Amino acid sequence: MLKPKVIIALNSSWNLINFRSGLICALVAEGYEVVALAPDDAYSVRLSELGCRFVPLPMDNQGTHPLRDLLLFIRLWLLLRRERPDVLLAYTVKPNVYASLAAGLLSIPVVNNIAGLGAVFIKGGWLVRLVRGLYRLALRRSAKVFFQNGDDRALFIDAGLVKPEKTDLLPGSGIDLTRFSANEKSSMPSAKDVGRPFRFLLIARMLRDKGVVEYVAAAKQIRARWPNVECALLGFLDVQNPAAISTEEMNAWVAAGDVRYLGVSDDVRLEIAQADCIVLPSYREGTPRTLLEAAAMAKPIITTDAVGCREVVDDGVNGYLCQVRDANDLAAKMHAMLVLSVAERAAMGQAGRKKMELQFDEKIVIDKYLQVVSELAGKPA
To answer: Is 20 in the same domain as 43?
Structure first.
């Protein structure tokens, strides 16, 4: 008897490995044949270890060239016609739009995941109108559309992009509470106890929309008052995005002496463990995975009072909320974190861990996916 087939489509193999490994493994364990579609990158070879089959899908992630997007749609239609999956799981903008459109023509059930609306929805203009129109077409025949926060769901419903009864909320991509744990190595010691400076750490792709410029400006203020404090950054530079921070710009900031750039890491737990507070001054998110990881490891957080970010932090309980695009307010919240006692920061970290256990466990996400996939594939739950 043939196994029911599930195709999962994203914009990078890195994304699949880092954010969807748990779901892929759960689907495989439930007896599904899982096929992963994404552009080929250094992480693609690791997908077979999860028990799924990888099919490379060339994709211009950030471009808006109509012919390249048409070619992507044709590739997806041909691939889906050949594979004939029982269910398609789509993530990120282009798979959500073009894979959904192709699947609709082939009567393949689609489950979408809208994980934040990105720079396009922040900036407005003609591109927003185009993307909204494409979403309206793409989601018209979707079986289920998951959102990672209520603001994004309300935006799509109010704009008539999706019917309310098709939608549901997920706690981001969820967090593996075993892998990201608050053990003795990861949660607090105080900086002075391990012979290093107090460290703030921003983990993200190096984009202006992540609040990187504001973080650097706030770091300058903090270090003028607290010269022994370290303000570090971790994440990809020169990414394919109009808001990307260049290597030259980062080198200039580092040379000025106010921030330290740590490069990239395949295991962020090592860097989170050495930080005293995680900072993400993003303009808008779905639900930022790095904040979930930090809270699960019992680290206090500073983030913006913005869509997707505010869901992770109870202000004054497991961290602080600051104003969007406001380096002065960010610096004030960093100062407030510094003047807390070690015990007070540890209590914030433990409150964050408890919040993750109650609201953001990866099992919540996986269980919702298994339920909807089993209904669409006709497989007993």
So the answer is: yes
